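The following block was generated as part of the benchmark described in Methods. Ligand: 2-aminohexanedioic acid.
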Amino acid sequence: MQEYKLFIGGEWTDSATDKTFYDINPATLDTLASLQVAGKDDVDRAVEAAWEAFKTWSETPPPKRAMVLFRAARILEERKEELAVLMTQEMGKVLPETRGDVQEAIDITLYAAGEGRRMLGETTTSELKDKFCMTVLQPIGVIGVITPWNFPMAIPAWKLMPALVAGNSIVMKPASDTPLLTIKLVEVLMEAGLSPGVINLVFGPGETVGKAVVHQPEIRAISFTGSLETGKWIMGECAKAMKRVSLELGGKNPIIIMGDADIDLAVDGVLWGAFGTTGQRCTAASRVIVHEEVKDEFTKRLLGRTQVLRIGNGLDPKTDVGPVINESQLSKIEKYIHIGQNEGANLLTGGKITNPGLPGFFFEPTIFTDVGPDMRIAQEEIFGPVVSLIPVSGLDEAIEVANNTSYGLSSSIYTRDISSAFRAIKKIEAGITYINSSTIGAEVHLSFGGVKGTGNGFREAGTDAIKEFTEVKAVYFDYSGKLQKAQID
Ligand code: UN1
């Protein structure tokens, strides 16, 4: 079993605490690695190393910084299969999905590398003669990055790659359930030629290590993906310190199925959105808002397809649904089953912890029907294979129900009517709307993020990726040789 220290200033160094924790395979409960828990002093050391490295990295021309990313993408491509297998062992999701996760990391790496020769500012006019005006993008400095376990390589890459090409240096705390894939990603970047100290890794629980990163006074910005509750706390702390913060939080993503929808296509989309990644995506479809005209037919077909899903080890090609990440998530999902039943929803199938001959954390794909839009199972993010069917009688009601949530990440509508589709695009309060496909499957060259409780206005990936990690400077270049006064002369 591999033992990991902390990665600071380009070296694996001992933590100041004598604590360690274990990285466990959620299907087999095998221990994959042990890792040292960082202390506050270690976070300080990491920040110091990051500022030291910032001096040269921020002065390296962006196209040269981008070359590191291009090389990293090539190495990731060569190791894609090996990394995907390791990710299934560490996180549990099925192999085709972990291949997709690594591919998403490769995609954003190449996309961000392209920014090395773009990172466009603006040139514009001046109200005064012989004066030249432009904006340039500059790095922020040292950024604290805190990532979740459900996309062990893609989400770290979404944050790291644009931040790096923009010239920042990083102190990162990966999720304690999936630190290995972050370590692999950083190893690849180091192999690709990243200078020591540009990325530093500290490990351990959010309550201590995450907190120390958020509170570290020399960290200029925090980029966080995780729960609404933690995100709110981080935003509050960052407000007190006037620290920049970008948040990517939860979702309660709806799929609307209209009476004119292609029902089989909708069933495919709901199965993929609700039970893919065992429901553990912030883009998972957890509410299906279905028109009464097709409710019975849709429910029957969905039930048939759900009951034949095979639960098991994600490495087994026969498995459709892998394990849940850990014991506490498993009990959280179980708790929501009781909540749903007590609220009066009808448990159509699933609802139980199960054992496919493995000791890990498995939960049956679960469907609730007759769910009221205000029930807790229709409001709170469960982050497991549980979907709630909510009947409606028309488009306006469907959109109202879709928007009846504190989140606003992804959304979808199945319809053959163009007007319904455009109405949904306009009216659904979400950062992403799909037409005739599921709520998951965002591509890296489009902005990713949401409204309301899903975030604080930032977007990741796409053309917004660079904005998250740069400051804009406005430059006024006066070559008139005399004092000119804007708004006055
Ligand atoms: C997440 O669920 O945290 O669109 C990210 C998707 C993926 C990204 C999901 N490309 O589902």
